[in-house]
């Protein structure tokens, strides 16, 4: 598996991604392309237009040309790789595809998108059926939309656009959740993710269930579990939200938060870390909010839970370094 698949899916509905144009979707709606869940399939399940597919499927083309869908990225950013997933499409997958990207301000309509300047991200490439087709992307430009072209027609289950979130500073308040994946926060490490990936901690919205959070296996030693978050931008943390929603018999007993500025300190040097939140008791199935006293700027925050268990979300409301935020945006636009 390519390393880029560990990065967030910028096109996902989780971040607000959506299909804004498709020239044809007779057999199955293009909206399926950005669904966060893995595609599913029930054989011999027929609707009024044939076998039901969890993906985008166009009619059999009888004229020259190809089919196209345009996706608005929920989290604009730099694309590192693309996954064109043809799961369950066997005799009806496109033999070839390409992907382009563009960057536009505001909320362009299909006419404006048709007139935009598109940059090739994936060249005209062969696809395999019922497979994840992975393509590295070399461009380091920021994009807001991608265009999937399939040749000449057929079905694609999902389009994953993995990359680095780069928000527009003009669209952010002066204080926001600097750990959030939709703003560029990312998981930099963790001790254990047996039941749930720590990436869930920083996803948008409230957790829908216990399976929508981070959960470790049961510890049988004297240690504790932890997760390390790289903030979207160096920031001064002002408020922490430690959410154990849905975790009832398996919430951590307590937790701490520590920060570090990795530009001047070392992540593996204990003396370079500073306290954000002393060890506090956590209740099951509860959103806990804690004000953070004035502390130095942090680039990373470590959440330690004692001794183990599950967390639904981690929110770190902070005041970002506006200069760094602006420079990062301008470097890729």
Automatic annotation (TrEMBL):
Broad class of enzyme this protein falls into: hydrolase
Q: Where is the Allantoicase domain?
A: 16-165, 184-320
UniProt-listed GO biological process terms: allantoin catabolic process; purine nucleobase metabolic process
SUPFAM superfamilies annotated for this entry? Answer: Galactose-binding domain-like
Q: What is its EC number?
A: 3.5.3.4
InterPro entries, alphabetically? Allantoicase (IPR005164), Allantoicase_dom (IPR015908), Galactose-bd-like_sf (IPR008979)
Q: Which pathway is this protein engaged in? A: Nitrogen metabolism; (S)-allantoin degradation; (S)-ureidoglycolate from allantoate (aminidohydrolase route): step 1/1
Which GO terms label this protein's molecular function in UniProt?
Answer: allantoicase activity
Keywords on record: Hydrolase, Purine metabolism
* Pfam families (UniProt xref): Allantoicase (PF03561)
Q: Which reaction does it catalyse?
A: allantoate + H2O = (S)-ureidoglycolate + urea
The UniProt family comment states:
Belongs to the allantoicase family.
Write down what this protein is called. Probable allantoicase
Gene name of the encoded protein: alc
